[in-house]
Write a structure and sequence with these properties.
two-stranded antiparallel ribbon, 10 helices
Length: about 240
Amino acid sequence: MPENRTDPAHPESGARPSRLSMPAGLFAVLVVAVLASAGVGARYWARGDFDVIHAVLSLFFSINLLICYWEACLFLKRDYIETRAEYWRGRRGETGETPAAQFLLTRVPLKKTLSPTLWADVWATYAQFDDSYADRRTYGFNVDIANGFATPLPTLILYAAYTFDIMPALVSGIIGVMLFWQLTYMTSVYLVSFFVANRQTRISRGELYVYILAMNSPWVLCPLLGLYVSIRLILDGDYSVLGY
């Protein structure tokens, strides 16, 4: 969106209206649903069974892959995000509405759904709850960029290994310990840094519970489950923990 505009439309949707569009939030949900269903469906097609732990981790892997793309956008559009954070702050003052909800409900053309400029607003709106995402000097800003570039490959490897048993369980376990430990540690330190900096005093209790605790807790709970699975893979030497 042009920096001086005050409507929620995205800049790349301003050229010519398109009938093929959908809310940004719905597109994100569909991406995760397709990725997660691919893993669960592939296992059912290959083995004819279903495993809860495999399904949960397939969903987590799918969400993490989407978040990794957003985190790459955080790096690529870091200057733009700082400007957009100010825009959303002003818009919230004008309308009293939550910027995150406004962005997720904004309809965008399908041909622009992979635009880094579009998804930069994920961070510009999240910066209304944690302004470290509009400040490249902070831990939260940089650790998410690191996650975006460092974890897609091991995520894809484990996703395939858990679904098709394509490598020795010991190897999968070692990769899993490395991936899940760093995710657990990274998110835990982020949450600690949030409270140490007293950022919780700048938002409401509801925003703290929904946008900080609820949205970040899966990156602690699911990696803890992943650590358990990884340790079992190493100790058992097979994929029995995943129902194989």
